[in-house]
Inverse folding.
């Protein structure tokens, strides 16, 4: 029968595609179903305005696992990652902090503010490198169940314990701090220059509903350090052609291994028989059969929409209902007629090919969070800016530019009104903030796309608009992600698996959940 | 050098006194040195105005460990508690949390039927978790590097107790502790008023709002000693907290211990990398083979032992301890009972003003930037309602704890703002007790700065270091110092800065004494 597969993957985001590629690579007959016309989920490139291409949602890459790039031969399939080497933080007084690829230049720049910080910066880099190395091991394993007495779980726990002891006492203490502190508090133990602390601590709030002073944000900071490109930790990169090119290369790889991929195929329901997955039915009524169905969607959709909650244990349903998928990030994509000048450092130098961070002080970001806590978007938000067209000129017409602004905070739920009514006001707040640092920005804007968590939810299906498919909080990590007992990519329905960012090790363009789920599925074998 | 002691205990607070009693009962020659003229430090009651006795720092002996009370036989040394039927009374909503959880649940029906049903389950769950934390509180925390088998064996008991929660319960336990109180409370309840009262308990002695990860832990920790009514364990000592110190001192002395007040330590004497004794401010030297200090680790090690005795890494860690005291207290001598809209019985516990978790969060927002919120969290107590020895007949001693009074003010200092705070508290309470201002005979405001200067609390931190997730267990007081040992032979840390932390449990001192007895022969 033509509609019979070994495995069906619901959702053509990067994790779904990675999962499909690994299964196809093992010789499985695989079908991927994506609801949109374009593959990639949150990792897509779209020509939003004629001639202007945007990494509409996710915009930088650092976390993509090197073993995936290798196993799936992504470079051969068109992946090129261009380095994003610098970060500049313009300050309200016209000065700036610049950190670039050249450590001496960075040292000199930081020394202008504090020689102590300039020296600590190198040490800090080393410490975080060690931390990332220590945690890297965890990214590659299936979380053990600490409540089980099964020898397999105990062995896994023991291995984990041994790993932690192997990293040494000092690093272990630092790791405990990273797991429990706020990013600002953690960084203030290293640095005294407030805007530097602010900019570094911003990595701890991206995608979360936490402020830089909220305990738990240091972990998110670490999470963003866990990336490695070509073996270099904490190297951010930008994919040639935008983040969609990453998804495309994975899809190409999957197809080369024999996977079939369909777009504009909206899955309505999981089909089951006696507690076993048997396939899916599309919204148009088409049915596809497979003994293995893998959902790369967020847990609310995976468990409460695709599956029938009545077929699941009540506790799991409660856990998923209580799973925090509250979105807090927005995105403003701008098409510009020419490159705007940064008042603090005019011209189109190297700094315009890196990240530009609007994070002048810890209090600035914290106040932005204060507003969001009570259901207002930040009027003075934290903004992480890049000009993709400076790195990859094919993203915009010659001489013109695209500007990607990631904005924190845009709370999913507004205290008054709704996002349809406030979207443009939010866009204005972002542009007004930009104008403080890029005085000519307003005249340069040809088009503007504003995305709130609502828009993210509606367009790509992330519940709550949460870019990690669920908050990266201590209560939702590792053996608790997405729900206790169901962290091992399986679900209570036999043959039904999960492989999205909501499963260990979590969000970002890592591909790790997709890969780890595939390994689990292959281990469980075909029925 | 004068005297011949085995051990000197620095600090005559309940930790120091409990430690000295344990040490003396084990046959050691012990001397307690207290800087102030009275025992207790910030855990004491004082006659601030003639006839009016106030618990000037800690409001009660909330977490005093029952096992410790039994082992030291404190009842025979005069320790007695008042029975408080009420855990908390919410000023704005009138919600009353009784010690009897079923009674609370039945009354909550008026406010919210689902919450009434949820409350019993919540209170049971919290009590189960608290019982596990209590077991943990009685053990010395493991270091990350050295793992003697004995320690593992003792902690295995905790693991087994936790296992009795069942796989599901254990998962929930692990999941709940690092949660924010707001998230945890939202899982259970709908009523903002109910969540508000509990949120107020979850942020006690913290410079964090109820949205902060780990405030759930704090909510559970506050119920460590049981009988919390789902809110907070509160053991009110008859005669005020000074009576607790008297009982502990009597237990210590009864076993042969000596206690000296008004003895200011100048430095800790160290010879050949080991403790030799102490030198007092007047130059007097007292020899001892071991020292157990219950003052803050920073003062003990940096001021008294001296930084050069330590590794630079440890000095840095000591300086990085987060204190961030945020508690102020306004003590009021009243000519009569304030006219709160409640029955007298309802006022016998904590009288809480915190209408919602967001109210708490906003109060914290102000403190975060070094300001006192115009709408502060207030927790008032009138111990004289149940204990007539604390105030003249017909009159009352009321103490009001103010949360999120930041140690560091951005504008001005507490010497200028002290009375502003007092006025704000009286004015705020007058909304609920009209005419309160006219009842005030005397008023004393104690700010975080005063707690530091007069009571020896670093940055006014009641817990000698904030009890956030990053400063607990193995990380308390600093990484590498768990197990009550300082890196100088014979020097032990047994104050609230050590595990399990603050709350007048007596356990940091008592546990440290146990450790010392095992290690110093």
């Amino acid at each position: 029968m033509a509609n019979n597969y070994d495995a069906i993957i619901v959702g053509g985001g990067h994790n779904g595609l990675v999962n499909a590629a690994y299964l196809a690579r093992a010789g499985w007959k695989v079908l991927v179903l994506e609801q949109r016309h374009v593959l990639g989920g949150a990792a897509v490139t779209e020509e939003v305005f004629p001639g202007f291409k945007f990494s509409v949602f996710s915009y930088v890459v650092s976390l993509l696992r090197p073993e995936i790039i290798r196993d799936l031969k992504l470079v051969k399939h068109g992946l090129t990652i261009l380095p994003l080497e610098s970060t500049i933080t313009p300050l309200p007084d016209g000065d700036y902090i610049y950190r670039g690829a050249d450590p001496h230049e960075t040292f000199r720049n930081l020394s202008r503010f504090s020689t102590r910080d300039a020296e600590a910066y190198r040490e800090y880099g080393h410490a975080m490198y060690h931390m990332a190395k220590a945690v890297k091991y965890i990214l590659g394993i299936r979380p053990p169940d600490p409540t089980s007495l099964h020898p397999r779980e105990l062995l896994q726990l023991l291995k984990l314990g041994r790993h932690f002891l192997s990293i040494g006492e000092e690093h272990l203490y630092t790791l405990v701090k990273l797991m429990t502190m706020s990013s600002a508090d953690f960084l203030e133990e290293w640095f005294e220059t407030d805007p530097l602390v602010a900019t570094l601590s911003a990595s701890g709030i991206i995608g979360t509903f936490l402020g830089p002073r909220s305990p738990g944000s240091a972990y998110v900071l670490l999470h963003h350090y866990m990336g490695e490109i070509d073996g270099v930790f904490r190297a951010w990169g930008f994919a040639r052609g935008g983040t969609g090119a990453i998804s495309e290369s994975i899809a190409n790889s999957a197809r080369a291994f024999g996977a079939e991929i369909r777009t504009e195929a909206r899955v309505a329901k999981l089909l089951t028989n006696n507690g076993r997955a048997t396939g899916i039915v599309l919204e148009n009524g088409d049915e596809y059969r497979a003994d293995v169905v893998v959902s790369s969607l967020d847990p609310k959709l995976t468990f409460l929409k695709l599956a029938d909650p009545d077929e699941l244990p009540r506790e799991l349903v409660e856990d998923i209902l209580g799973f925090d998928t509250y979105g807090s990030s927005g995105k403003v994509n701008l098409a510009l007629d020419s490159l705007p000048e940064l008042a603090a450092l005019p011209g189109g130098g190297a700094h315009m090919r890196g990240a530009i961070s609007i994070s002048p002080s810890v209090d600035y970001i914290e106040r932005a969070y204060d507003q969001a806590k009570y259901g207002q978007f930040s009027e003075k938000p934290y903004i992480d800016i890049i000009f993709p067209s400076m790195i990859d000129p094919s993203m915009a017409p010659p001489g013109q530019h695209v500007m990607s602004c990631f904005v924190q905070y845009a709370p999913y739920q507004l205290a008054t009104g709704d996002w349809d009514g406030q979207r443009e006001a939010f866009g204005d707040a972002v542009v007004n903030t930009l104008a403080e640092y890029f005085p000519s920005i307003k005249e340069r804007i040809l088009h503007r796309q504003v995305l709130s968590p609502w828009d993210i939810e509606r367009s790509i299906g992330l519940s709550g608009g949460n870019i990690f498919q669920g908050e990266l909080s201590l209560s939702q990590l590792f053996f608790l992600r997405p729900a206790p007992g169901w962290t091992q990519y399986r679900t209570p329905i036999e043959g039904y698996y999960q492989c999205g960012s909501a499963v260990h090790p979590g969000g970002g363009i890592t591909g790790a959940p997709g890969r780890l789920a595939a390994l689990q599925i292959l281990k469980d074998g075909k029925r | 050098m004068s005297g011949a002691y085995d051990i000197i205990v620095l600090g005559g607070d309940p930790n120091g006194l409990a430690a000295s009693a344990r040490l003396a009962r084990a046959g050691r020659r012990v001397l307690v040195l207290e800087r102030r003229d009275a025992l207790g430090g910030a855990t004491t009651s004082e006659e601030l105005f003639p006839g009016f006795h106030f618990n000037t720092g800690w409001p009660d002996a909330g977490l005093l460990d029952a096992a410790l009370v039994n082992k030291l036989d404190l009842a025979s040394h005069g320790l007695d508690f008042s029975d408080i039927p009420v855990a908390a009374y919410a000023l704005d909503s009138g919600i009353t949390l009784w010690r009897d959880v079923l009674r609370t649940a039945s009354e909550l029906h008026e406010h919210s039927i689902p919450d009434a049903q949820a409350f019993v389950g919540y209170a049971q769950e919290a009590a189960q978790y608290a019982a596990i934390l209590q077991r943990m509180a009685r053990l010395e925390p493991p270091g990350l590097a050295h793992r003697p088998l004995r320690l593992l064996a003792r902690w295995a008991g905790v693991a087994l107790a936790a296992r009795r929660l069942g796989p599901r319960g254990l998962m929930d336990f692990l999941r709940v502790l690092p949660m924010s109180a707001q998230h945890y409370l939202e899982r259970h309840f709908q009523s903002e008023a109910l969540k508000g009262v509990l949120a107020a308990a979850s942020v006690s002695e913290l410079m964090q709002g109820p949205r902060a990860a780990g405030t759930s832990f704090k909510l559970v920790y506050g119920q460590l000693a049981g009988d919390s009514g789902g809110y907070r364990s509160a053991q009110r000592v008859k005669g005020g907290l000074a009576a607790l110190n008297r009982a502990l001192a009597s237990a210590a002395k009864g076993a042969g211990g000596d206690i000296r007040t008004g003895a200011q330590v100048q430095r800790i004497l160290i010879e050949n990398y080991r403790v030799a004794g102490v030198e007092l401010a007047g130059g007097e030297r007292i020899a001892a083979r071991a020292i157990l200090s219950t003052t803050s680790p920073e003062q003990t090690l940096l001021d008294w032992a001296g930084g050069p005795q330590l590794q630079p890494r440890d000095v840095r860690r000591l300086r990085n301890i987060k204190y961030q005291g945020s508690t102020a207290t306004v003590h009021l001598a009243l000519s009569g009972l304030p006219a709160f809209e409640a029955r007298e019985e309802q006022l016998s516990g904590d009288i809480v003003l915190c209408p919602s978790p967001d109210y708490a969060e906003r109060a914290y927002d102000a403190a975060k930037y070094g300001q006192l919120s115009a709408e502060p969290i207030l927790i008032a107590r009138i111990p004289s309602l149940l204990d007539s020895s604390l105030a003249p007949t017909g009159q009352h001693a009321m103490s009001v704890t103010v949360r999120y009074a930041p140690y560091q003010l951005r504008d001005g200092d507490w010497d200028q703002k002290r009375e502003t705070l007092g006025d704000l508290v009286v004015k705020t309470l007058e909304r609920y007790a009209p005419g309160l201002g006219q009842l005030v005979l005397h008023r004393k405001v104690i700010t975080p700065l005063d707690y530091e200067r007069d009571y020896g609390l670093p940055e006014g931190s009641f817990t000698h270091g904030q009890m956030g997730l990053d400063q607990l267990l193995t990380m308390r007081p600093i990484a590498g110092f768990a197990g009550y040992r300082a890196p100088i032979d014979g020097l032990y840390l047994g104050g609230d800065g050590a595990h399990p932390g603050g709350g007048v449990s007596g356990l940091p001192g008592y546990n440290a004494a146990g450790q010392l007895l095992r290690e110093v022969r």
Q: What stands out?
A: Residues 104-221 of chain B form one domain. Chain B has 17 helices and 19 strands.
